[in-house]
Amino acid sequence: MKFNERLKAIRMESGLTQKEVYEQLGLSQNGYASYEQGRTEPNIATLVKLCQIFDVSADYLLGLED
Questions:
Q1: Which residue blocks in 1-66 are alpha helix, DSSP H?
Q2: What is the pLDDT of residue 53?
Q3: Angle at which helices 3-14 and 44-54 pack, to 10 degrees?
Q4: How far apart are CA 27 and CA 60, in angstroms?
Q5: What DSSP state is assigned to residue 37?
Q6: What is the pLDDT of residues 7-64, one digit of tens each?
Q7: CB 44: neighbour CB atoms within 10 A?
Q8: Nearest CA to 32 among 52, 4, 63?
Q9: Which of 8, 40, 43, 60 could make an SS bond with 56 (beta carbons 3.0 to 4.6 A apart)?
Q10: How many CA atoms lie within 13 A of 14 on its CB side?
Q11: Residue 13 vs residues 6, 7, 10, 47: alpha-carbon distances, Å
């Protein structure tokens, strides 16, 4: 599973909207949506925040482990 697919899946499993996530990250709607659409990838600081929001490891979010 690609990063963008895993990110969207974990967000939906968590019951969060894109708005809730991008507000927690301090990003614009388009900035976050571009992650889920696979157009861009987050920097390290944002990746850490995503891991904290979803309570998962970076390895899991990046698809290095299941």
A1: 3-14, 18-25, 29-36, 44-54, 58-61
A2: 98
A3: 30
A4: 22
A5: T
A6: 999 999 999 999 999 999 999 999 999 999 999 999 999 999 999 999 999 999 999 9
A7: 8
A8: 4
A9: 60
A10: 18
A11: 10, 10, 5, 18
